[in-house]
Each structure stands twice: as structure tokens, then as C-alpha cells.
Amino acid sequence: MNAVIVYLKDGIHGKVEVVVEIIGKPNQSYTLSGPVLEMIANHPLSDFVRENEFTQDSPTEWLQ
């Protein structure tokens, strides 16, 4: 799979946590993600973070 995934999560202090995950070697989705991420980055409510619970390994082998 080649994909760019953008996670948006309500964070603390009224900001939205933004995490970007790139899987494989995306082409089209990477190109399209550029303008989208630029728009999000320029928004005063965005807070880019390195990781959150969406991007961490599951604590169990069983699907949630």
C-alpha cells in the first residue's frame, strides 16, 4: 500500500492535533497532500505532533 494518512484529533487547549503518516512510496496521494497540509499548517487551530494513539503500535496482537 502506498498512502498518506492525515489524522486529526481534538487536542488540549482548543487545538487540533495533526499527525501525518506516510506508508510505502506514495505518488498521487503525496502530491495531493501537499496543498492540504499547507492549508492545515496555516490554520491557527492546528498543532502538528510527532505521534498520538492512532500511530502507536497496538498493545495487543488482537485487532481492536
Structural commentary:
With 64 residues, this protein is an alpha+beta fold. The protein has one domain (3-48). The protein has 1 helix and 3 strands, in the order ββαβ. The chain has one helix spanning 28-41, and strands spanning 3-10, 16-23, 46-48. The longest helix is centred in the middle third of the chain and has 14 residues, at 28-41. It is flat, with a radius of gyration of 13 Å. The two termini are 21 Å apart. 3% of the residues are buried.
Number of helices: 1
Average pLDDT, rounded to a whole number, is 87
N-to-C SSE string, H for helix and E for strand = EEHE
By DSSP, the count of extended strands is: 3
Query: How is the largest sheet built, in terms of strand order?
Result: 1-2-3
The fraction of residues in strands falls at: 25-35%
Major sheet, described briefly? 3 strands, mixed
Low-pLDDT regions: none
Rg over alpha carbons: 13 Å
Short description:
By secondary structure, the protein is an alpha+beta fold. The chain contains one helix and three strands; from the N terminus they run ββαβ. It is 22% helix and 30% strand.
Index terms:
single chain, 64 residues, alpha+beta, three-stranded mixed β-sheet, 1 helix, 22% helix
Task: Walk me through the topology.
Elements: E1 3-10, E2 16-23, H1 28-41, E3 46-48
Parallel strand pairs: 2-3
Antiparallel strand pairs: 1-2
